[in-house]
Automatic annotation (TrEMBL):
Gene3D superfamilies: Neutral Protease Domain 2 (1.10.390.10), tricorn interacting facor f3 domain (2.60.40.1730). SUPFAM superfamilies: Leukotriene A4 hydrolase N-terminal domain, Metalloproteases ('zincins'), catalytic domain. Residues 310-455 form the Peptidase M1 membrane alanine aminopeptidase domain. This is Aminopeptidase N. Belongs to the peptidase M1 family. Residues 1-24 form the signal peptide. Its cofactor is Zn(2+). Keywords: Aminopeptidase, Hydrolase, Metal-binding, Metalloprotease, Protease, Signal, Zinc. Its EC number is 3.4.11.2. It catalyses: Release of an N-terminal amino acid, Xaa-|-Yaa- from a peptide, amide or arylamide. Xaa is preferably Ala, but may be most amino acids including Pro (slow action). When a terminal hydrophobic residue is followed by a prolyl residue, the two may be released as an intact Xaa-Pro dipeptide.
Length: 506
């Protein structure tokens, strides 16, 4: 046995060190990333934002955006400096009222050094004045800002915020929002939450939006253009506001026929997922050339192209299911994407059943049968797909197949209890696939590690015994359910084409 001998001098020094008050410890810079292995530079360390106040002015003719962002935050460590994720040109930064120095680094980092270092646990107010042309800014070789014939749109995943406001751009830091946008008369500004007021003066109209429930940065949206706006209420009393670009052309009717059913679908989903979590609802279709949809909180973004072949209510089901799975409870790390996409796809399977166009079981059987064992489809692990496959079709279809396998394993009573209980257990925070497995085990009383490993984490097709155990048919040929084409039509339209993330997505 070795004894360590400490020299008396060293011991005295150690005691002296302990006697130094913590406040004298050096302040250090906040990390430039929040610690997500898929996107190491996304988000930031050292602080937590509770509210964003954005006062913006946007000129559709030139795509110029100017604004003042006020971030209400609290430090989580002693800070000498901290980063914001942002791409536009900054003219001034103030921290707690005093001018701060700032510089840019990396692809999208704004480094801020306050006049006085900040102690851990103190409230901080950061004011950033800026302007720029969002469509001219790129990070990692792409832009998340969509220029339209009559304006611009911020909507993308996993990132869009940096093109229009400075933020802590990661789902772990959720906040409430006030978004106030000045645009030329005759132009509308659409954002999340509730439209509190509009006012016009000297040729400009200000639109004031409020999101009163915590929201992640990638779910914050802004769309400026010429829109037709419809308003109403769901049967359960939630106000609905939808917006359609005035130049959707031939896609206009199909878009409305789909999105005007938003209230009905939200009420229907509430039967499975529990009460709708927000005080506002809707959807919007700007005239973009993109091909995906995104579950921007309370008001999903839809691309016109998705309605090229007629209405697609299944797509609306998918984006609204995310209001619970992804928005109300958000992922902890981007590897947890299955909780968002597997369940939003499964909601489409439940809708198919509701419409009499194929049961969830028939859809699961079809997915299992239509991909042979050597199909690369099975090499993607929905439980941790990697950043390049985050929006791969396997995350959706194999992801929903895993949900059906869980349902068959624990039985309908426990399964529907999990489906409804999960958003309430973790709202309005963040949770991981491991958290979900633990919760399902708690509710069902069954060990589920083997099931989760087989269906979500193995880079191979679950074999016949696993399929039998999960009550998935092993038949080689399974008839295609009637709803399949509508569901499949939401694949290529969900994607990240400009990021090269495989053209599947949100």
């Amino acid at each position: 046995m070795h004894r360590s001998i400490i020299a008396p001098g060293a011991l005295a020094a150690a005691v002296l060190l302990l006697a130094i008050p913590a406040s004298a410890a050096p302040h250090s810079p906040g990390a430039p990333g929040i610690g997500d292995p898929y996107y190491p530079a996304y988000g930031n360390g050292g602080y937590d934002v509770s509210h964003y106040d954005l006062r913006l002015k946007y000129q559709p003719a030139t795509d110029e955006l100017e604004g003042t962002a006020t971030l209400v935050a609290r430090t989580t460590q002693d800070l000498s400096s901290f980063n914001l994720d942002f791409l536009l040109d900054v003219s001034e930064v103030r921290v707690n009222g005093a001018a701060a120095s700032f510089t840019t680094s990396g692809e999208h980092e704004l480094e801020v050094t306050p006049k006085t270092p900040l102690a851990k646990g103190t409230p901080v107010t950061v004011v950033v004045r800026y302007r720029g042309v969002p469509s001219s800014k790129q990070a990692y070789g792409f832009t998340s800002w969509h220029r339209t014939p009559d304006g611009g749109v911020a909507a993308n995943e996993p990132e869009a915020a940096a093109w229009w406001f400075p933020s802590n751009d990661h789902p772990l830091d959720k906040a409430t929002y006030d978004v106030s946008v000045l645009v030329p008369d005759g132009t509308q500004a659409i954002s999340n939450g509730t439209l509190h007021s509009t006012s016009s003066r000297l040729g400009w109209t200000r639109w004031n939006w409020r999101s009163n429930k915590p929201q992640t940065t990638y779910l914050a949206t802004l769309a400026v253009g010429k829109f037709d706006i419809t308003t109403g209420r769901t049967e359960s009393g939630i106000p609905v506001l939808n917006a359609y670009s005035k130049d959707l052309g031939d896609h206009a009717g199909a878009a409305r026929a789909s999105i005007e059913r938003t209230g009905e679908i939200a009420d229907w989903l509430a039967e499975y997922f529990g009460p709708y979590p927000y005080n506002a609802l809707g959807g919007y279709v700007p005239n973009t050339t993109t091909g995906y949809a995104l579950e921007t909180q309370t008001r999903p973004f839809y691309s016109p192209r998705q309605f090229a072949n007629g209405s697609n209510v299944s797509l609306v089901v998918h984006e609204l299911a995310h209001q619970w799975y992804g928005d109300e409870v958000s992922l902890k790390r981007w590897k947890d994407i299955w909780i968002n996409e597997g369940f939003a796809r499964y909601a489409q399977w439940l809708w198919s059943e509701h419409e009499g166009e194929g049961t969830a079981q028939e859809l699961a059987d079809y997915v299992y049968a239509s991909h042979p064992a050597d199909d690369p489809f099975w090499t993607v692990k929905p439980g941790d797909p990697g950043p390049d496959n985050q929006f791969h079709i396997a995350v959706y279809d194999r992801g929903a197949l895993a949900v059906q396998a869980l349902r068959n394993e624990i039985g309908d009573a426990a399964f529907f209890s999990v489906l409804k209980g999960w958003p309430q257990k973790y709202a309005p925070g963040n949770a991981s696939v491991a958290d979900f497995q633990r919760y399902a085990e708690e509710v069902s009383g069954k060990p589920l590690a083997a099931l989760f490993d087989t269906w979500l984490f193995q880079p191979s097709k679950p074999g016949a015994p696993a399929a039998r155990a999960a009550a998935v048919t092993e038949a080689k040929a399974v008839p295609q359910p009637k709803s399949w084409k509508k569901i499949a039509a939401t694949n290529g339209v969900h994607g990240h084409a400009e990021r090269g993330h495989g053209g599947h997505g949100h």
